[in-house]
Design brief:
Helix content: 55-70%
Strand content: under 5%
Distance between the termini: 9 Å
Structural class: mainly alpha
Number of strands: 0
Number of helices: 5
Order of helices and strands: HHHHH
Length: 122
């Protein structure tokens, strides 16, 4: 079910374009919507982490709720004018200093190469 590389930047831009066409919520309303989606994810997890066996059976699954949480996180970022791809590397530097794990954050490095290999194997 792979669809090529989907970056945070692409998703944020895509959602921004949809926002420009349909709506433009204030940050407080976006945060409330994100909180609702987090609650739906919690509900699915508490009930036993139901996974989607197929796209036709996506409704009410962990996959659906995680996508909703990501969608509204990016929509909130747009509403606040935050470009997450600009800030993720900086935040990862802070995380690595505080919680060292021996893996460097390098979107162009070995882990990125591993993702490309996984795609060609499928």
């Amino acid at each position: 079910m792979k669809h090529g590389s989907i970056t945070i930047g692409y998703m944020q831009h895509y959602i921004r374009e949809k926002q420009n066409q349909r709506d433009n919520y204030e940050p407080r309303k976006m945060y409330i919507k994100l909180s609702e989606e987090m609650g739906e994810l919690a509900r699915v997890m508490i009930r036993g982490e139901k996974h989607a066996p197929s796209a036709e059976e996506l409704k009410g699954t962990v996959e659906e709720e995680l996508c909703d949480v990501l969608y509204y996180t990016l929509k909130l970022a747009n509403t606040l004018g935050v470009e997450l791809e600009d800030w993720i590397p900086l935040k990862e530097q802070l995380n690595s200093a505080r919680y060292p794990c021996g893996i460097d954050f390098d979107p162009e490095g070995d882990l990125a190469d591993d993702r490309e290999e996984e795609k060609t194997e499928e």
